[in-house]
Amino acid sequence: MKISASGIESAYALAKKRYEDLGVDAEAAMARLKKVAVSMHCWQGDDVGGFENESGLTGGGIQTTGNYPGKARTATELRADLDKAMSLIPGTHRLNLHASYAELGGKKVERDQLGPEHFKNWLDWAGENGLGLDFNPTYFSHPKANDGFTLSSLDENNRKFWIDHGIICRQIGAHFGKTLGTPCVTNFWIPDGYKDIPANRKVHREILRDSLDKIFAAPVDQHHNLDAVECKLFGIGSESYVVGSHEFYMGYAVRNQKLLCLDAGHFHPTEGIADKISSILTYLDEILLHVSRGVRWDSDHVVILSDELRDIALELVRGDFLSRVHIGLDFFDASINRVAAWVIGTRCMIKALLYALLEPHQELCRLEAAGDFTGRLALMEELKTLPFGAVWDYYCLQMGVPAGTDWLAEVRKYESDVLSGRQ
Ligand code: RNT
Ligand code: ZN
Asked: What is the CA(182)–ligand 2 centre distance, in A?
């Protein structure tokens, strides 16, 4: 059932007053929210398959599960699905592309030979829709990564191939950034690691440092491209040792002033990333987040409005970090409608930010500084049941996207009109 606009407006009027009583300006919160761009990942739409060949996601220790019908088979279909998803999400956002989503026109182009021309359609589409682009070299689903090693491989030829891929991707990223007038974050994640106990942990880390140094030595304009490195604890098939661990990349990022990418699924299963943000931003200007949801392992479930997500958003707002943190999403679920997955996850990210922007932060800080931890806890708990949903619905209404679950009817229609025709 469609929610009526007048119902949303009257609920909002009451909610606004309730927040005002706490010294919070709901209008100002929404105005700030409007400016936040979330980088939506292309890979939710086709189960991290990419368009280089038929085989889809192979290796790398990441996995999609499920076979919900309607997966995008071409870049054109993927863009159509993204258009649909984006039309149901308030605000103007970004698209995060992987190199494996190059459009090669039926030709075989190796990953060390890619160029901006292979992403022309993506770039045109982003420009037409006012979207920024982010980018990722693809270090998985490739014969040269089959032994589990890429940039830290002991094989010099392999390494050279992957170094060249990295350099080319940074150049492509800079081209995106320059063309679109907003810097592209190019994020490096590699799967390298061992299933079982390594005899020589050190050698791969030294090699990885050397490979990264070579990649980043290539001159690329920082105004157009920002480099990020993503750490990880373990993957399927790399349970005992991941070369690019947290300590490895934190050291690398701090020494070389690169962005560190924190993926919510890349730490111990009970460890959140919210508390890490202000620590790392003490030493780095900017970071990248991969907002994800691990269930028992780094399972990349669709992001929901969990405590963990709220904590991340609260940290971004409380620390005034929104301009220093690039928010990317990283989840992939093939067991539900893929367009719906994007919509749910992205809307939840935005919702969490709205929740955080509606917090009476100064008052909480005042209580804390005065040593009134009782008052701090009491107020924090009270905030959870304020009429936040009424502000969210109103925000959607203002932004011209469906409120409540009204978006679902549109996804269902798209499923029967478009997705169901895909075999
Ligand atoms: C893998 C990393 C990485 C990938 C994407 C597809 O564990 O999280 O970010 O999910 O590059
Ligand atoms: Zn990630």
From this structure: 22
Q: Can you give the CATH number for the domain in which 345 is found? A: 3.20.20.150
190 domain residue, yes or no: yes
Q: Which residues contact 416 (CB under 8 A, 6 or more apart)?
A: none
Give the pLDDT score at 186: 99
- How far, in Å, is the centroid of ligand 2 from the Cα of 411? 26
pTM above 0.90, yes or no: yes
Contact indicator for 46, 72 with CB cutoff of 8 Å: yes
Burial of residue 91 (CB within 10 Å: 0-12, 13-18, 19+) is middle
Catalytic residues: 189, 230, 232, 263, 266, 290, 298, 300, 330
Q: Is residue 387 part of a domain?
A: no
Domain count, the chain: 1
The residue segments making up the domain with residue 191 are: 36-360
Q: Is residue 4 part of a domain?
A: no
pLDDT in tens, 32-78: 999 999 999 999 999 999 999 888 898 888 999 999 999 999 999 99
User: Considering the domain boundaries, does residue 69 fall inside one?
Assistant: yes
Q: Is any atom of ligand 1 closer than 6 Å to the C-beta of 290?
A: yes
CA distance 137 to 159: 14
